[in-house]
Amino acid sequence: MVKLPFIICAVVFSARSPLLGQSSQAAVGQAVANRAPLQANAFNALPLGTVEPKGWLRRQLEIQAAGLTGHLGDFWNDVGANSGWLGGTGESWERGPYYLDGLLPLAYELQDATLIRKAKQWVDWTLTHQRSDGQIGPARNDDWWPRMVMLKVLTQYQEVSGDPRVIPLMQKYFAYELRELPGRPLRDWGKYRWQDNVYSVLWLYNRTGDQHLLRLARLLHQQGYDWEAQFADFKYTSKETSEKLGLKDHGPIPEPAMQTHGVNNAMALKVAPVWWLVSRDAGDRNALAHQLATLDKYHGLPNGMFSGDEHFAGTDPSQGIELCAVVETMFSLEQAFSILGDPGLADRLEKVAYNALPGTLSNDMWSHQYDQQPNQIACTRAHRQWSTNGPDSNLFGLEPNFGCCTANLHQGWPKLVSSLWMATADGGLITAAYAPSQVHSKLNRVQVTIDEDTEYPFRGTAQFVVHTHSPVLFPLVLRIPGWAASATVAVNGTPSEIRKSGLYPLKRTWKEGDRVTLKFPMSSRVTHWFHDSAVFERGPLVFSLPLDGQWAALKKYTEKSADWQITSTADWNYAVQLGDCSAKVLERPVGSVPFDVKNAPVSLSIKARRDRQWSTVENSAGPVPSSPVTSPDPLQTLTLIPYGAAKLRITAFPYLREKSQCGSASAELEPVFGSLAIR
Ligand SMILES: [Zn+2]
Question: What residues pair up with 29 in beta bridges, in sequence order?
Answer without folding.
Answer: 11
